Fold each of these.
Amino acid sequence: MASRRMTVGFVGLGNMGSRMAANLLRKGCRVVAYDTQQGAMGRLRDAGAQTVESPALVSRVLAEQTESGVLISMLPGNAQVRDAYWLADDSILSSVAAGTRLIDCSTIAPAIAREIAAKAEAAGCEFVDAPVSGGVVGAEAATLTFMVGAATADAVERARPVLELMGQRVLHCGDVGSGQAAKLSNNLVLAVSMIGVAEGMLLGERLGVDKKVLASIFNSSSARCWSSDTYNPCPGVMDNVPAARDYQGGFAVNLMRKDLGLALDAATASETALRAARMALSTYDEAAATGLGDKDFSAVYRLLEEAKIEPPVK
């Protein structure tokens, strides 16, 4: 268990990052945070964090408060991560102290994780990629799974204490970038399974099966999966999931589109055929085009519910 007086820098306070940082505060850490949204910083400041006005200031304050700090980032994608770490004038690496442990929990291309690692090493810092599984529910409850890419097992063990304050499982996937590879593979399956559950729930209900009964059958049969038993997309089946609140919060359709795009880019580079992933991306693209891009990705149920079926040509 990490020291209760550990000081942690945190860059990125969206749906996931805000909850992860809040758990660090609840478990006794000092948190120095930055986000582009003032509202997100204000809420965390009210919870006891110190907030600053740039990623560079997170690094600088961290260096002033501790000899070997930990800085975590949780950002939407490739562009934001590259800017935060080195492209922007006020980046993390522009003022980071040697010896700082850098942990990126964003979902990005594996190649970018390796690029950050090389730049971090040049600055005297250790970097691991540690994307997460578990969604907003897991971030809130501190039950996330971290998929860690690190140069050595020792680097994973050095990251483990702070990660275990925000989650339940820390898995070493291989060298830097392999955490991202595992996460993209996981989200590919998640994207496809959510569409399958949404279609199955919709079909069963329209054929006269009570939706809660149908979900119970799925969850005790071969259709069982996280998209059904933990995050069911059909309104009225579960409480405390996006489907129960008009698909607000959670993991946005646009973020799932981003992750599927990264997976398909990796598939092209590795000469891997991903047929279901391509079909899934087409479905989420359609959802975004109908105005669901900022809704949780389980809103694919609404897309299917409202879809018009063309009669077969006779």
Amino acid sequence: IVDVQFFPQGDKLLTLGVDCRVLVWSVASGRQLRAIRGHDQETVFAVEVLPSGDRFLTVGGDFTAVLWDWARGEEVMRFRQEDEPAAHQAAKVLRGAARFVTGVSYVLGGSVLVWNASSGEVLHALRQPGFPVRRLEVSPGGDVVATGSDHRLWLWSALSGRVLHGPLGGHVGWITGVTFAHGGRKIVTCGNDRRVVVSDVGSGDQAMMRMDASVLGVVGAPWGQLVVPFQATSAVVWNTTSSSFLRSLEGPASFEQMAVSARGDLVAACSSGAGRSAVWLWRLSTGR
């Protein structure tokens, strides 16, 4: 399992496997509700649930993004940039689900594509020089897009396509995770340089926390102040207002990816190791 996402209501989970299957699970019972396979058996890099909870989006190495109806298990629409095909490696839905963004990879760099979810038209192509777009996040209001590729962070306007801030520093190694906090006023990045950096979206001011090892990613409930940077076998709950450590989340296997529910009460992690893949759940308030 390489990715995990909560449904907006928090009652279901999506998992994405290396076998290109997306599985839908009940949080309460742990029962599998649906299995979907797509993208012509090519690698599927990311999955994102729409705010309505009835559809989700996948992006893959076949140069497409696909919108799915999870209850029917059917493909609703396929999106492809015909004039400059590229592998989509990240995806996020903008508020209201009328638009979504994908991070794509080219030989000499990458772009963020802003799509019209109804027509399949590319509204903006935000070109990022130097490196592919591997880390992508959208603010809760849907107006700011954050991207990280090498050691730099870029903030874009999702409406106009112009750069708001960037490139922002703070890292000396690759950025491995991006998330918003404080209702979109702060953005948190982490990297293989053992740093977690909190940047102010308005001013670009930054604060930093050092970890004891490379950080694989960071997740959080975007309206809150708590974020969860995670490493290979453990994660910490961190208060971005007081810059204080609250508790640890210990796991029995190697973490691949994590997610926080929309209400901010549950944390999910997908793990793999010893020939076994699993999803683990904790309560954010207690770490249990």
Amino acid sequence: MQSIFSSTKSLGSQAAFTLSHSRSVVKYSKKTQSRNIAMHVSARTPDVLPAVIIGGGRIGLALQQMGPGTDQMVRRGESIPEDSKGPIFVCTRNDVLEGIVESTPADRREDLVFLQNGVLQPWLESKGLGSNTQALIYFAVAKLGDPPGDGITDLNPEGLTAVTGKWAEALAGRLKAGGLSCKVLEEGPFKVSMFEKLIWISAFMLVGARHPGATVGEVESAHTDEVGQLINELSAGVTAETGVVFEEKLVERLCAYARSVAHFPTAVKEFEWRNGYFYSITTKALEAGKLDPFPIHTSWLKEAGAA
């Protein structure tokens, strides 16, 4: 069997939100969180469903620590155990997804759970995996082995991490066993949440690129008007393109999350999966002789040398 991570096809690089929160809007105590994780790891909660975890980085290890102690970790060069059952949590960069799917036994591909950033749906559909479980990860891990901090803000005290699909309950149960929040959503609400996270990372990274060295927190505090203007443009364009309607106070909610990861660095990355989604709509419109639905986005991408 072909081993995991063996594909050489580049699909962009994963830049997970795996950073510690840094402002008071985050409603958790790191000391308390550490105790909670330690308690759950030592107890190895038996009602958490065992899983295969692909990728031993910060997110993969955190998920393993929340598990029952019988998870199977798959690292670079290794294959998915043929006798494995249950969900397969894919905790890797986007650029190795091709190889992961190809090396997964055909009868187990429906069990792949994708935790990557960006718009995955078109690519998943091209692989016959359009109905697979997907998750939006907002919890943060500062460094390998650290306990995760929850993705909770003052405007979303219920938490932001969300999941949909076959293994949604299994992932949510695991996270809750680790003291983290997780919403199980139907396809429609999940799509809205996915676009909100896409707009967040695309807007904050691009505005940050206009101000070299700026952190996410500095974009939120010092360049509020710029990022708000871009968020409004991107959200309006998404609604026009897809029919997705966002709840009120989108700018305020996305800025609240930015404050919770204030020291996160900014850079335009994973273009195909993030800003490239909007730029592809721009290209299609211009080729059809229509107006650019994202003129600010396009202008700033060119300014940053990303398009």
Amino acid sequence: LALALALALALGMGSHGKALRVLVAGGVGGKLDAIVSRVQAVVKKSGPFDLLLCVGTFDSKKEGEESGAAKFIRSGNKSPIPTYFIGCDGGESCDELLALLEASPESNIKYLGRCGVTTILGLKVAYYDDLAASQGEDGGEVDAMLDSATSMEGDIDLLLTNYWPSGVLTHVGKRDDRLARVAGNRTNAKLAQVLRPRYHFSAMEGKFHARLPYANPDLGTGSHVTRFIGLGDVGNGSNEKFVHALGLKPASDMPREAFLSRPADTTPSPYEATSTGQDGGREKGQKR
């Protein structure tokens, strides 16, 4: 983790100041004690972080029992750093959790919402809770995000989705056998293609994978890269990495040269191929 953070800090730093230190976690599944313990261990080893973002299923509830997240919050516990999540299934237990969080601001945990773009500590974060959306219509929120994308050229620092985007493994060369059955979601691929985030995080596959950076097509203002990272579930038994550390400056604060820098291992965009019919994975979590 220390080496990954050092590299991420180097990628996120520019000449204009200090990078934010961000942790991103895969599916928490109600194991808030476990993720808090991991965050505390990382902070003890690597110093303080500014933010924790969570993708994948956030909570879990057995029939007749209180959910893991609800138990954590009702016990008076709180996250040691500001925490934002997606991965709410839109059902009754999700509604109960959101009501509890609203009544417990001291928990330091907030739900981002079903779909949108927000600014957190200067970082522009786009999010699509495809788990919540799968329970019903999204009210055109995704279409609105896509329609407004031209005004956000280069501004999206992070895109958060639960399911992996379809086709993301295109252009990566030799396939990893661990990822042979990875599912994909076309809506998430479209969001990544149009929003052109600097980083895209997903979970739901239970696998860690840091894809080679890919170049977004130049729309007239230069071509910057996107890095897709899939995360494992918190506390999984397969040693899949479930917390990723970043040092990140907002794109709006970066020197243009740093923003457009392209590593030697950069690939073409996987979504240009996807749009011509190469899915790179079966469809899952598909709503639209």
